[in-house]
Batch of 2 targets.
Target 1
Amino acid sequence: MGAEGEGAVEEATGFEVCIVLPKLSRAAATGPTEDCVARLVRELEGAGLLVERVRGVPAEFIKLAAPMGTLGRAAADMQMKKLTYIGMELQFRWDQVAAFVRQPDGSLFSWRERYCCFRYLIYGIVNKTNSEIALKFDGKEFHWKQSESLLTMLEAEGVVKRIFPLHDEIKRKQLLRNWALNWLDFTWQPIDEIYSYFGTKIATYFAFLGMYTRWLFFPAVFGLTTQLIDFGSLQWLVLPAFLIFVISWAVFFLQFWKRKNSALLARWGINCSLSEYKNLGIELSSLSDSLTVEEKKFCDVSAEKSKLQRNEWFGVLLRIRNYGIIMLAIICLQLPFELAYAHLYEIAETEVMRYLLTAVYLVAIQYYTRIGGKVSVNLIKYENNQGEESSSASLVYKAFGLYFMQSYIGLFYHASLYRDILSLRQVLIQRLIVYQVLENLIENSIPYLKYSYKKYIAIHKKKRGKGSTVGRSVRLSTRVEKEYLKPSYTASIGAELEDGLFDDFLELTLQFGMIMMFACAFPLIFCFAALNNVTELRADALKLLVMLKRPVPRAAATIGAWLNIFQFLVVMAICTNCLLLVCLYDVEGKWRIEPGLAAILIMEHALLLIKFGFSHFVPEEPAWVRANRVRYVAQAQNVCSKQLLRNISKFQGKLD
């Protein structure tokens, strides 16, 4: 094999991808027409994959594994870009494997890169003959056309039901033991192992959740102190001081998260991308082309510029229209519903009725907001967004607008109408407790109920097929059968643009908004949030490792649009808490207009200054990350300059 694969062959690969086929309703008949499953297996083996067929109760499964050499050649054929040891992302070459940076666990490819190679290999099986090939399955016959992907054709014919990634049992059990079931350290997480197993996006979410939970203990302790200690004559200063502390805490938390995120990406070899080199105006792959295409005229450039400007402003108008539709739906449909709930809540006679009303409301509003989310997904299809990341951000903003109204309008209504801080605290407690308990119950019970129902249906069909005379029990005997019946990790509004992290991040932002915007009304609310997040860490880990299929890896290196929403909620918190402090409460809990609007306006402007000023005190990336980035850019400039000079010399030589 040579030097190209000495390090790579040491990596053992298990079965990582599964193709699901329906069970045959009749025995396969012999004849001149080839069975499509047998042909698929032969083609997969011809592509260098390791194949294992499993005949289960609900379906038939083809499990796939790949030697590292097969993945390496696929990555080279895909022209995959990987980070090298000089800090540049270059096209992968299997014969130069030693030049490319390895993953934290020592493997050559990340989980997302391996999954992309698998999909490239299985969808790259095409009919290279000069004629159509007749195939049959379960008595049906169809034709595999020239240059057609075999797997695409089988999906269209209903032969291939699903393709999904498989759990690695050894790594899954290690994560289960060391992470999900490890309650000794409430917030510790093996982030590098999570990244290696689930990919960048999920690892980034858990890193953010862990850091957010740890930082919550600071305002939780301060809030608990304000409730337990009587400050006497200085009591009127407690809430303003608490507000200043909370705003400063939020600003520093978000800034330190940016630092942590950049450090994680640097450790995973993701932060150094070609974007730095593109900013230099130099592309290695286009150096020669830029010198040999001198015949391009300025009129072509002007025409392209005009076209891009038209598309840009047309996309802006489409987004404005879609945001207008969402806002109209909120005002005309959701706002009356929210106000009706707030009114019914106030006229309820007992606390039991209020808790029941809140539970019914939260269940009903889930369906409304999911409908709104699906409408948002359809609207985004007509926007001129640049790539999947831009479309996902647009969806996040629209959906959060719906949930923002759902979560806070009742609280705003109660605070403005009754102006009773003690009553507002009761509403906050009920909202937080009922919402978090109900959300966790739905989040963790529905996947199990779906799995149990699918398992029952599969076993029941198998029993009916065997007949009533058979006394043996039917059960799922293989791991792949159980994984197939588990629900996928998808967003509640649909899987087109987002995975299940959409709901998890949405839950965090709604909680963050509630504890921040009403911090002065109930400082103890941070304690509830901290306790909830400690359990959320382990519950989400168990959900991913036990209750759901292994998620498809997605290429997201940051929390994206959610960070903008967190920063927006900090500004909202400044405004709402200053309004609360306009009416300081007296001994009886009633608010009164003191010490005056002037003092509150001064405090509001001071907090805004803290918010935007403190953001610049903490650098967004550690010094070692910044130093590496500068060094990598300098190396890239050096390499690009040498290549450019060589091409200029060649070009000048041709002119001479």
Target 2
Amino acid sequence: MSVPEFKVGDKNIPTSLQARCPEVIKGFEATYGSKPDFVSRSPGRVNLIGEHIDYADFSVLPLAIDVDMLCAVKVLDEKNPSITLSNDDKRFAQRKFDLPLDGSYVTIDPSVSDWSNYFKCGLHVAHEFLKEIAPAKFANAPLAGLQVYCKGNVPTGSGLSSSAAFICAVALAVIKGNMGDSYHVSKKDLTRITVVAEHYVGVNNGGMDQAASVCGEGDHALYVEFKPELKATAFKFPELKDDDVSFVIANTLVVSNKFETAPTNYNLRVVEVTAAANVLANKYGVVLKHVGASNLNKGNLRDFMNAYYARYHNTPEPWNGDVTTGIERLTKMVELVEEALGNKKEGFTVEETAAALNCSKEEFTKDYLTTYPVRFQVLKLYQRARHVYTEALRVLEALKVMTGTKFDTDQDFFKAFGGLMNKSQDSCDKLYECSCPETDKICEIALANGSYGSRLTGAGWGGCTVHLVPSSSVESVKKALINDFYKIKYPNITDSELSDAIIVSKPALGSCLCEL
């Protein structure tokens, strides 16, 4: 399926774009003194259920949201192989750079923190793709020069994937600008090439952000699978009788410095879930077989599930993502975690973990504790493994709620889906310990004022929360959050800051092009 293309002014253009496209076109005209040829767009995303399970290769359930990055673009004649890059946000100064005449790639220096580096990431992966699909044209010749004007309203640093929205919009623009009107890039190809883009600035991401940004559909959530290949399948929310599904996304405004907190937060969780997978494998006498890169190169909890079923249930084929089979297998995994790790809920010391792996303390330290810096008293293998398996199970149960359940009333749907979101938050808080007091307070206020499901979204330890709210209750939830959280926690907060902190969105369309 190709990335959707619209004409500015068309009746079928998405409502959110009807106002936004004229704004970015006007900004382009004011900056460059002429009209652009087209606008490329890609949105931010929010994850509904499936937190901290992507690095165990389990599927997640995000959706694209109604905030986005728009790039108005004019293609220059072949005498001018350069990029001029401007931004509506004046914090980001104009940049200009030449495109290599021999068709080589533009250099990216990740040690320099500049917004143009993210543009260059999108440019690079698009350039690679162009060489792949049209080698005769792009092997030894420069790309087309472009004038670009960017206007985005995805709050940066909020965990809503502003960088993925920017890079996907840029890659789409570069492909369009170089291939012209006759070529229509597929969603699959745009997702595939942008997944690795941020690696060029030193960010190791898993693919959910790009898949959600590119493949989003109105009124749909996306079932994003990582194995056997990256794939996003859209599932429609049920038709309700008297109300609509909306999501309120509220930022705690708590920023967790990833570098400083990684030894006790993210890095430590990677070590714990990897150690848990290997302790389970040793306990049940199976060998973990992992295809592709993995954290610590030791296999993960999905690999254990596949190995267990291959040995004890004579099913050598790995789980293929089927919902019914997945629910059955994940339910069994939860039982095994209780059986094998439930007697050590207080945590494992290094010595106890090494003994459970049949290795020396020195071997365990070398294999697990030297790749990333970590600090801990005990390793909470039981809690982390239980979270991963039950959270993966909730993703599949959410799909069943969306597709296989009949509801007598709108409230029945909100209770069923919202209940899974609440269980997810409880698990993130108590088992994975990635919530924070501000997140807990926002969820408490939202649930008391009309939300049916409230949870953190993203890595946690601050950042954003997401709330399932009937459209008729959105203003009630917003008002309560402003009065009972933001104005108390941040008494000097401005209206502009509040506008960025609370986003209301329905599931939105993913990447698209608008022609003038």
